[in-house]
Amino acid sequence: MRTKAFYIPFFTVLAIIVLLGLPAVTGCSQDQKFGGMGLNVGQLFDPNVFNHRGPLVVLDVLEGMPAKRVGVEKGDVITHINNEATEGIEFDKLIQEKMRGPVGESVTLTVKRASMEEKLIFTMTRVAVSGN
């Protein structure tokens, strides 16, 4: 059986890197509790997408957070959030509307891992993180 190589050149990651779970900058009052999964992500540049906005890539997984507990790893490429493709969507919109959300709400990530041919699906519950 032949293994397919899956390589993510880090120079294609956009310079914007956000720690998920910090309070949303817009559309969120201080009283509202928003949660995250404990991921640092960036957005890949994709010349084959009309606006060049590729999927998200995991740059870091925070210890003790939901993403770490379910098995998300650094380098995983997030292709879908709650069954919606990440390709072609602006980074801020993905973070504000898809990755972050109410504490206690479930979120499902579909990821492609370099060492595996098939995609992986992780479901986790958002938790409050420091800063909320």
UniProtKB/TrEMBL annotation:
The chain positions of domain PDZ read: 35-96
Which branch of life, at top level? Bacteria
SMART domains in the record: PDZ (SM00228)
Q: Which SUPFAM superfamilies match?
A: PDZ domain-like
What InterPro entries does the annotation carry?
A: PDZ, PDZ_6, PDZ_sf
Q: Which GO terms describe its biological process?
A: signal transduction
GO function term, MF aspect, one:
endopeptidase activity
Annotated Gene Ontology cellular components are:
outer membrane-bounded periplasmic space
* Gene3D superfamilies linked: 2.30.42.10
Q: Which Pfam families match?
A: PDZ_6 (PF17820)
Recorded hits in CDD domains, A to Z, give:
cpPDZ_CPP-like (cd06782)
| Protein name according to UniProt | PDZ/DHR/GLGF domain protein
- Organism for this UniProt entry: Desulfatibacillum aliphaticivorans
